[in-house]
């Protein structure tokens, strides 16, 4: 059914119909809006079911229906009021009778930019909390103290700041801080989902810095929060401590690769510096090993996506040595090892993180694909017939190194 027919049918039965949430916000931001969510008020659930017998009921604790509108299945919710009664995002008493108004529904939402509606059919903007002005000013502002009723809103606000390049008001930062205690009991999947979206954003550091500003980094990402104040030799790190460095590296990685596992690897590459003994600072000898331990402990607390873990481990192990190799045998071995990380991590992804960290890239990584192609021209099948077992492996490694030396010399001659 068309949107027009859907709205007309409801209006003919005394209801009001609205487009709500992120679609309205994104339309005002002039970016391509995502899925449309609808809301209806002034109609009882039973009457709605009679009008749309094919609509599938979904939703936890309150009715949401899936209706096919303009060719896609859209969510249609009833205007509702919520009263927090228990812990977590499900601890609500909800009322959604036909008397609940659109303004009441918008009031229970997180931020002003997400609390606007367009009434159908004319798409008149309903904006009781001045979200349009905040979108124009690029400001994230909690609608009310109800913000704290769902603690994940603290992460949503930080993540949307990173996605949209918006700033967060002081008062909202305080509400984010007020979510601190409850955040410790949130399902980790919701936190990882927000982390994923933050890593997808153009500047992930905005997300982590907002959490730090609200003093909730230590409860959401304790391994990262340990990096704060960890000193580093200023001649190598004029940007400051291990936290400032990590924030720069994750942003530079986001400029260089869309691969989320690689961006995660950039985030955790120096995570071992968080547990460097105080007396060793500003040096961090052995931080690769401590980094693997920290990542493992993060993964015990939260099951991290397997590809993130694999990329994270690999970069923790390789980020110090990879750009500093001189011996051809080591360069050949590294390139072949990087090659084995596909499809989790391509050579380009690996290079993106190394360059984000060191702000330069050695020629053997810049031309790594060509060097690999040359090395792949040699196969164990070409080994002399007298060789077997490990001797074939050794012969292959030697041949591949010889090929690499030639190919690298050609690359360097052209430079
Ligand atoms: N914790 C939450 C989640 C959602 N919402 C409200 O529900 C709407 C729809 O939520 P959702 O689709 O999850 O997010 P969007 O804001 O539409 O967009 P995004 O994809 O950026 O999360 C939001 O706009 C907001 O009004 C809320 O108040 N609190």
UniProtKB/TrEMBL annotation:
<dbReference type="GO" id="GO:0005524">
    <property type="term" value="F:ATP binding"/>
</dbReference>
<dbReference type="InterPro" id="IPR003607">
    <property type="entry name" value="HD/PDEase_dom"/>
</dbReference>
<dbReference type="InterPro" id="IPR050124">
    <property type="entry name" value="tRNA_CCA-adding_enzyme"/>
</dbReference>
<dbReference type="GO" id="GO:0042245">
    <property type="term" value="P:RNA repair"/>
</dbReference>
<dbReference type="GO" id="GO:0003723">
    <property type="term" value="F:RNA binding"/>
</dbReference>
<feature type="domain" description="HD">
    <location>
        <begin position="242"/>
        <end position="344"/>
    </location>
</feature>
<keyword id="KW-0460">Magnesium</keyword>
<dbReference type="InterPro" id="IPR002646">
    <property type="entry name" value="PolA_pol_head_dom"/>
</dbReference>
<keyword id="KW-0533">Nickel</keyword>
<keyword id="KW-0819">tRNA processing</keyword>
<keyword id="KW-0479">Metal-binding</keyword>
<comment type="similarity">
    <text>Belongs to the tRNA nucleotidyltransferase/poly(A) polymerase family.</text>
</comment>
<dbReference type="Pfam" id="PF01743">
    <property type="entry name" value="PolyA_pol"/>
</dbReference>
<dbReference type="InterPro" id="IPR032828">
    <property type="entry name" value="PolyA_RNA-bd"/>
</dbReference>
<keyword id="KW-0547">Nucleotide-binding</keyword>
<protein>
    <submittedName>
        <fullName>Multifunctional CCA protein</fullName>
    </submittedName>
</protein>
<dbReference type="Pfam" id="PF01966">
    <property type="entry name" value="HD"/>
</dbReference>
<keyword id="KW-0067">ATP-binding</keyword>
<dbReference type="Pfam" id="PF12627">
    <property type="entry name" value="PolyA_pol_RNAbd"/>
</dbReference>
<dbReference type="InterPro" id="IPR012006">
    <property type="entry name" value="CCA_bact"/>
</dbReference>
<dbReference type="GO" id="GO:0004810">
    <property type="term" value="F:CCA tRNA nucleotidyltransferase activity"/>
</dbReference>
<dbReference type="InterPro" id="IPR043519">
    <property type="entry name" value="NT_sf"/>
</dbReference>
<dbReference type="GO" id="GO:0046872">
    <property type="term" value="F:metal ion binding"/>
</dbReference>
<keyword id="KW-0548">Nucleotidyltransferase</keyword>
<keyword id="KW-0694">RNA-binding</keyword>
<dbReference type="InterPro" id="IPR006674">
    <property type="entry name" value="HD_domain"/>
</dbReference>
<keyword id="KW-0808">Transferase</keyword>
<keyword id="KW-0692">RNA repair</keyword>
<dbReference type="GO" id="GO:0001680">
    <property type="term" value="P:tRNA 3'-terminal CCA addition"/>
</dbReference>
């Amino acid at each position: 059914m068309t949107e027009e027919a859907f709205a007309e049918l409801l209006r003919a039965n005394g209801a009001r119909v609205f487009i709500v949430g992120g679609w309205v916000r994104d339309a005002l931001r002039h970016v391509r809006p995502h899925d449309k969510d609808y809301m209806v008020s002034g109609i009882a659930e039973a009457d709605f079911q009679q009008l749309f017998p094919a609509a599938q009921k979904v939703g936890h604790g309150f009715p949401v229906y899936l209706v096919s509108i303009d060719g896609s299945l859209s969510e249609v919710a009833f205007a509702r009021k919520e009263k927090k009664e228990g812990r977590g995002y499900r601890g609500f008493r909800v009322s959604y009778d036909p008397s609940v108004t659109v303004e009441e529904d918008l009031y229970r939402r997180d931020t002003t930019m997400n609390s606007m509606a367009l009434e159908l059919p004319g798409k008149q903007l309903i904006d009781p909390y001045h979200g349009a002005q905040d979108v124009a000013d690029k400001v994230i502002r909690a609608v009310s103290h109800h913000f704290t009723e769902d603690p994940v809103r603290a992460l949503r606000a930080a993540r949307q700041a990173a996605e949209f390049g918006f700033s967060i008001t002081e008062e909202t930062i305080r509400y984010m801080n007020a979510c601190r205690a409850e955040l410790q009991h949130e399902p980790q999947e919701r936190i990882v989902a927000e982390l994923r979206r933050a890593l997808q954003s153009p500047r992930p550091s905005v997300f982590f810095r907002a959490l730090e500003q609200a003093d909730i980094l230590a409860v959401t990402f304790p391994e990262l929060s340990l990096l704060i104040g960890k000193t580093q030799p200023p001649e190598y790190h004029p940007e400051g401590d291990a936290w400032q460095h990590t924030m720069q590296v994750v942003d530079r990685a986001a400029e260089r690769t869309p691969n989320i596992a690689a961006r995660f690897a950039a985030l955790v590459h120096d995570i071992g510096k968080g547990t460097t003994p105080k007396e060793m600072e500003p040096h961090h000898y052995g931080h690769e090993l401590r980094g693997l331990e920290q990542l493992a402990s993060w993964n015990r607390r939260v099951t991290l996506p397997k590809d993130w873990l694999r990329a994270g481990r690999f970069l923790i192990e390789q980020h110090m040595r990879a750009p500093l190799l001189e011996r051809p045998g080591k360069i050949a071995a590294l390139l072949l090892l990087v090659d084995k990380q596909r499809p989790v991590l391509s050579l380009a992804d690996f290079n993106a993180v190394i360059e984000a960290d060191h702000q330069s890239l050695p020629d053997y990584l810049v031309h790594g694909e060509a060097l690999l192609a040359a090395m792949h021209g040699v196969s164990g099948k070409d080994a002399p017939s007298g060789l077997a077992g490990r001797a074939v492996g050794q012969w292959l490694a030697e041949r591949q190194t010889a090929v690499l030396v030639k190919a690298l010399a050609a690359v360097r001659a052209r430079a």
